[in-house]
């Protein structure tokens, strides 16, 4: 039999072990001291960069104020003003869209995030992490847009083919629970995006708050059956039809407007953390498709809200849930319409400014 080397398996002397343990402890202390020293240096450098970033933002605001003062005194012509504003905008984009954005003061996260997540900082310090948050938001919109279209379509189809024109309560309440999950997820993601520098308009987040409340209320809404099922469920049917239209609009926005946003980012006219707004317009060719659909959807949303209020007040479905949902639908429709008009006006002013700038360059 082969002999085993006893010296290889014999335990080391106590003195040798003590030396090894001491060596490990010394290396651990050195690593701790080196790490502390490095973190102290990084903290000092980071504080210095934060001060420079704040100072530069203040300088941009000061220069813009000087430009406004010069314009009021008629010391600058319009072309010079446009040129200066474009350069300042690009300088601002460099700060907010580059790695220096991590050193800018963090935006307030708002009560919504604090209620759900507590007092934690959701602002990412690295730009690639911020962009991943944005891409996850876009992916979430893509997934939910298709479900937004298919879910009510399936319910209405089954209502006609299987349920004899009368929707059962459970599938509708399941759909409302999914809407509550959807709008809560959108609101949380959009609040996080705003904290990381996105330009989402506050109304679209507030719109999702209203939709969350409506979904929560509608879950408690008792769905009436026979007799007169068709009359009692008319509001539910119209709401499902509106939801299908909303799904179509979301698909159009996700398909066409995002490409436009990528183009604007490449041209330096938008921040990489910007996203497609809830009801914004696309490029010129898309206006003829999106705008009529948007206004039709908003009008139909207001019509459904008014119909729900009518059914409650005339005694067809006299429930407080119907009244609340009707009011919320009307409020959301009005807010969407106003913000769509504001978006179109902003786009129109921007196009006019770019056209004048282009004409000036051609003349030069």
What does this structure look like?
- The chain is mainly alpha-helical.
- 77% of the residues lie in helices and 0% in strands.
- The chain is built from 11 helices and no strands.
- α2 (14-72) runs antiparallel to α3 and α5 packs antiparallel against α9 (234-266).
- The longest helix is centred in the first third of the chain and has 59 residues, at 14-72.
- The chain is flat and about 90 Å long.
- It starts with 5 loop residues before the first helix and ends with a helix.
- This is TMPIT-like protein.
- It holds the Pfam family TMEM120A-B.
- Its main location: membrane.
Give the CA-based shape: flat
Range of helix content: over 70%
Average pLDDT reading:
76
Query: Into which percentage range does the β-strand content fall?
Result: under 5%
How far the N terminus sits from the C terminus, by CA atoms, comes to: 98 Å
**Structural class, judged by helices and strands?**
mainly alpha
Secondary structure tally: strands: 0
Count of alpha and pi helical runs: 11
Detail the poorly predicted runs. 277-285
Largest sheet: none
N to C succession of SSEs: HHHHHHHHHHH
Rg, Å, rounded: 30 Å
SSE inventory with pairings:
Elements: H1 6-9, H2 14-72, H3 78-97, H4 110-117, H5 127-161, H6 169-195, H7 202-219, H8 229-232, H9 234-266, H10 284-313, H11 320-363
Helix pairs in contact: 2-3, 5-6, 5-9, 6-7, 7-11, 9-10, 10-11
Transmembrane segments: 144-162, 174-192, 287-308, 320-341
Pfam families: TMEM120A-B
Organism: Hibiscus sabdariffa (roselle)
């Amino acid at each position: 039999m082969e002999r085993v080397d006893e010296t290889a398996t014999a335990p080391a002397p106590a003195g040798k072990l003590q030396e090894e343990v001491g060596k490990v402890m010394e290396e651990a202390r050195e690593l701790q001291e080196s790490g502390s020293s490095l973190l102290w240096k990084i903290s000092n450098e980071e504080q210095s960069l934060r001060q420079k970033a704040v100072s530069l933002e203040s300088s941009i605001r000061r220069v813009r104020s000087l430009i406004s003062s010069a314009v009021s005194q008629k010391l600058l012509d319009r072309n010079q003003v446009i040129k200066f504003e474009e350069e300042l905008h690009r300088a601002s984009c460099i700060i907010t869209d580059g790695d220096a954005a991590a050193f800018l003061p963090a935006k307030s996260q708002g009560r919504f995030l604090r209620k759900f997540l507590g007092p934690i900082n959701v602002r990412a310090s690295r730009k690639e992490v911020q962009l991943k948050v944005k891409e996850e938001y876009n992916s979430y919109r893509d997934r939910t847009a298709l479900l937004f279209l298919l879910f009510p379509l399936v319910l209405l189809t089954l209502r006609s083919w299987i349920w004899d024109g009368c929707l059962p309560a459970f599938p509708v309440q399941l759909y409302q629970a999914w809407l509550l999950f959807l709008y809560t997820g959108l609101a949380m993601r959009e609040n996080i995006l705003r904290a990381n520098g996105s330009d989402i308009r506050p109304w679209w987040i507030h719109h999702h708050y209203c939709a969350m409340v409506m979904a929560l209320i509608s879950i408690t809404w008792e769905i009436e059956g026979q007799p007169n099922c068709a009359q009692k469920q008319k509001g539910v049917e119209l709401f499902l039809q509106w939801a299908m239209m909303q799904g179509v609009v979301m698909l159009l926005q996700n398909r066409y407007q995002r490409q436009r946003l990528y183009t604007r980012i490449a041209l330096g006219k938008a921040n990489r953390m910007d996203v497609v707004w809830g009801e914004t317009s696309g490029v010129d060719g898309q206006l003829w498709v999106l705008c009529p659909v948007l206004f039709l959807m908003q009008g139909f949303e207001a019509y459904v809200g008014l119909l729900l209020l009518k059914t409650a007040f005339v005694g067809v479905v006299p429930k407080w849930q119907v009244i609340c949902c009707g009011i919320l639908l009307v409020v959301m429709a009005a807010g969407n319409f106003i913000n769509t008009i504001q978006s179109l006006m902003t786009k129109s002013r921007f196009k006019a400014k770019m056209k004048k700038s282009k004409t000036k360059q051609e003349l030069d």
